[in-house]
Records
---
Amino acid sequence: MISVNNVTLAYGKRVLFDEVNISFVKGNCYGVIGANGAGKSTFIKILSGEIEPNKGTVSITPGERMAVLRQDQFGFDEVSVLHTVMMGHQKMWDLMNEKDALYMKEDFTEADGMKAGEMEHQFGEMGGYTAESDAAQFLNELGVKEEMHQMLMKDIGGNIKVRVLLAQALFGNPDILLLDEPTNNLDVETISWLENFLADYQNIVLVVSHDRHFL
Ligand SMILES: Nc1ncnc2c1ncn2[C@@H]1O[C@H](COP(=O)(O)OP(=O)(O)OP(=O)(O)O)[C@@H](O)[C@H]1O
Ligand SMILES: [Mg+2]
């Protein structure tokens, strides 16, 4: 669950949110609509923590994971397509790197062994062992062919990039999924794939869209 408590935000004299209280619960897909400039994107950014409200708080159920669709097309230039998707589950990704660094230690002690065991356990619970194949499957479903998976993000076209970033947001079954205008840069095929994906989604989805048909 995400709870928004007494959230207030103003830019100068323009009050976008005044003492907003609302909760979003598991199993629902919420459509956020409103006129241009009403504050939809700002609201999504408040939920994700990218923007701090002037007053009030946003809290999510402890242990739940939030994923956001990135609009930044150049944020992963030096990363491979496959790894970009896996990075969608930040905690799993960080743990994987920490774990690898630990195994690389030259003076690997018994204590390190214990620590590694714990990390492996956690990693397994996060679905780490199937992460690579899960990410590849997502990409394939989205029409990003196998031969592109090892390419760097900077070397692929914009229309493929948006699919990769979509796969990144959806990867690892996030408890809370925030999508701001997801259909903007997508082709019709991918839009219809996303419609089906979201229709079956069991967690919380918040989607901002001007596309009535999509909503
Ligand atoms: N950093 C900022 N400083 C000042 N004003 C801002 C800032 N960010 C957004 N605004 C203003 O806040 C209002 C809400 O912006 P926001 O981008 O959230 O609207 P939106 O509902 O997402 O619009 P659109 O439908 O065009 O995407 C707009 O009037 C915008 O100009
Ligand atoms: Mg917006």
---
Amino acid sequence: MAIGLPLTVDEMRMADVPQVHEIERLSFRTPWPSYAFEQELTGNRLARYVVARAGIVGGERVVGFAGVWLMVDEAHITTFGVHPEWRRRGVGRQLMVRLLDLAQEMGATRLTLEVRAGNAAAQSLYGSFGFEIVGRRPRYYTDDGEDALVMSIPSLGDPAMRDLLRRERERAEVEEGP
Ligand SMILES: CC(C)(COP(=O)(O)OP(=O)(O)OC[C@H]1O[C@@H](n2cnc3c(N)ncnc32)[C@H](O)[C@@H]1OP(=O)(O)O)[C@@H](O)C(=O)NCCC(=O)NCCS
């Protein structure tokens, strides 16, 4: 679906944390507390966090966010969420494009994440970017004992990945329109 508003993805700032936390609260059974994001932004050299902003400059609103850690040559997605009112409009795809860019810029060759076994929406998004299920962690989520699936893109440098990112950028331009 077309977004119809300028959508930008850039670095998360301290001032974004209250809006990010609200999306967390609406999205996850056990949301990260605000201070966890503040610590990540100020104290974790390995971490990068991004937000998607919708609207015109001055009237922008944070509609999604995501984070990644870099550990040697492997990057790991730590969190990923889109505001419920903004889902199915391509925001998740644009966040993922930025994370893939960041992971490649940081020199990662492999990108991994954990996702709830029952989270079909997220698995579908990740699958469309070439993530494959490579493992299962039984009872990984302590709040309800749900299993996690481990998903991975094994080789970020593949020409197929470059083509996929190019197609996604073109798609985002078309969806946002003039
Ligand atoms: C998963 C999530 C981030 C997707 O964000 P989004 O902005 O709605 O995703 P997009 O609009 O970019 O969708 C991209 C693709 O993901 C898949 N997808 C997204 N939502 C889906 C749903 N409800 N059901 C099935 N597939 C879905 C589709 O393949 C979609 O492509 P399409 O629209 O061309 O069919 C969002 O649903 C969310 O925040 N969920 C709650 C938090 C969460 O589960 N985070 C992931 C933790 S691992």
